[in-house]
Amino acid sequence: MASKAFKNIVKSIYRVPARHFHASTSQCMRICVCCQQHKQTAQDLSIKKYDKVFRRSIEDPEDFWAEQAEQLVWDKKWTKVLDNSKPPFTQWFVGGELNTCYNAVDRHVAEGNGGQIAIIYDSPVTKQIKKITYRELWEQVSLFAGVLEKQGVKIGDRVLIYMPMIPEAIIAMLATVRLGAIHSLVFGGFASKELSTRIDHAKPKVIVSANYGVEPGKIIPYKPLLDGALNMISFKPNKCIIYNRPGFEFTPLVKNRDVDYDFEMANSYMTDCVPVPATDPLYLLYTSGTTGLPKAVVRPSGGHAVVLKWSMWNIYGIRPGEGKPVGTPDPGVYFRIIKEHQVAGLFVAPTALRAIRRDDPEGLFGKKFMPLRSFRNMFVAGEHCDRETMEWTKQVFDCPVLDNWWQTETGWAITSTCVGLGMPLHPTPGVMKDDYTTETKDMELGQIIVKLPLPPGSFSTLWENDYRFKTTYFDSKKAFYNTMDSGYRDKEGYVAVMSRSDDVINAIIDSQYIAEAAVIGVPDELKGQVPLGLCVPKHGEIGGELEFKL
C-alpha cells in the first residue's frame, strides 16, 4: 500500500483528490507519471487559452471589451467602444449609459435572486455576524438614496464617506451611485488633518460618518475626528449624516449641520436608479502615497463595471454564489470565516497573514477548522509578500497563494495569476502589451511601463487636475503610462515587480533644509518592510530637530 506521507506529497503538488489514489505502490508510481502528463497537458491548454485571450484583448480591444460589456445591463448602448483621439484621456463605451448600483443589486432581485446572500458581515471584534440578502440590500440602499436625495444630492455631486468597515458604509456607497453621484471613500485610519485635505479637495455636498469604529484594543472616534477636520477648513458640506452604532456612546449632533442616520432612514422613501454616461466618474480614490496636494484618481463608471464583471471569473475564478469575507486578523478568525461561510477565495494583504503567523506560528488555532473543503485560492496584493509568509500560508491554509499586482490608478490587476484562464503571474489580458519595459537584458531591472491606450477600468484623469494627470504618469508623446515601479520579465513571460520609484524621495528633498536623500526598505515583523529615509542637510540650515511625514 502507498504510504500516507507519499499520498500527501502527491496531493499537495498536484491537488489530486484522495479518491484518485490506487492501492499499490506501483500503481501510485504510475498515477504519479499520469499526474505529470495531465499536469503538462493542462498547462499546455492553459497557455493556449491564455494566449488566445491575451492576443485578442491586445490586437482587437474594441471587439474584445464590447463582448464583455454585453454581460451588463445598459440603459443606453454605446455608440463607440474606444475613443483614443485625445491621449492619454482615453474613453471607453462612449455614448453608453448605465447605473452600477442597478447592475450590482437591482438586477439580481429582478432576476429572482433576491433571497440570495449579498453581504456577510462578520466582526470578530464586536462578535457580530449579520447576513444581508440582495432584497434587503436593495431596500436599504433605495431608502438611503432617498436620504441623500432629500439633502440635495444629485447626478455629479460628491458624497464623502468616512466610516468603519460596517454594512452601512457599503449601503452609503451604493446609494450614492444609485443617484448618479460620485462617492469618495476615505480610509478610516486618517486623522483630522489628512481628512480635512480630502474634504477640501473633493468638496462633497454630504459627508456620511459614524460615531465610533472598533479595532482590537481600541476605539476610533470617527465623529470627533470629522468635527476636527471640518474646523480646519473653510469649506462646509450641506449636511453630515451620522450613524450612531448601537452599543456605543451616542455622539451629539452639531445643530443645523448633522442629521441622524436612523431617523432619516425611518422617514425616507424608495428611489430608482439614475442612468449616467459610461464616461462619468463613479468614484474618487485618493492615492496612498499622496504628498502635498491630494491626488484623487477618477474611475469611470462603464469601464469599471465591465472589468469588475470580467475579472471575477477570469482572474479570481469566482462563480456566482461565491464571495469573500472581511475580517480582523486574530490567530483563528480567518479559518473560522472560511469554514463557516464556505468561502471559495480570500483576498488579503500580506500584513494580515504576517499578523496571524506572528501570533500562531504553528497554525494551531486553525487546525480545529480543517479541512477547508470549499477553499480554493488565497489572493494577496497591496504590498510585497515575503517568501517565508507565502510558504507558511500555503502550508497552514492548505491552498495556493496567488499574487496580484495592482495600483490605485489602474483599478485592477496589471499582472496576476488568472485562475479562470489557468495562467500564473503573467500580464493581465487587456492591460500590458509586449513592450512593457525599457530595454533590458539578462533580467536587468527596467522601468515598468504600459503602452496606451489603458484598458477599461483604469483612471481617466485626476480630479480637477488634468495637467498633473498628463505630466505625472505619461511620457511626452503620450504613448506610455509609467507605473513608477521597476522590474523585469523573464523569457517565459513571468513578471517580477522588484522596487518602487514613487514620490517618497521627492517629498524629502522638497524640504528647504535637505540637499540629498535616499530611501531604503528595512525589515519589519508585521509590515514586511518599512521605508527608512536618509537625509543630508544643507550646510548651516539645520537649527533643530526635523520631522518628515511620509
Structure, described:
- The chain has 550 residues and is an alpha/beta fold.
- Among the domains are: 100-274, Rossmann fold (3-Layer(aba) Sandwich); 503-550, GMP Synthetase, Chain A, domain 3 (2-Layer Sandwich).
- It is 33% helix and 24% strand.
- The chain contains 16 helices and 26 strands.
- The protein has an eight-stranded mixed sheet, sandwiched between helices. Strands 16-17-18-19-20 form a five-stranded mixed sheet.
- The relative contact order is 0.10.
A few lines on this structure:
Residues 506-540 form the AMP-binding enzyme C-terminal domain. This protein has 550 residues and is of the alpha/beta class.
Features:
eight-stranded mixed beta sheet; AMP-bd_C; EC 6.2.1.1; Acyl-CoA synthetase short-chain family member 3, mitochondrial; 16 helices; globular; alpha/beta; 33% helix; GMP Synthetase, Chain A, domain 3; ACAS_N; single chain; Rossmann fold; 550 residues; five-stranded mixed beta sheet
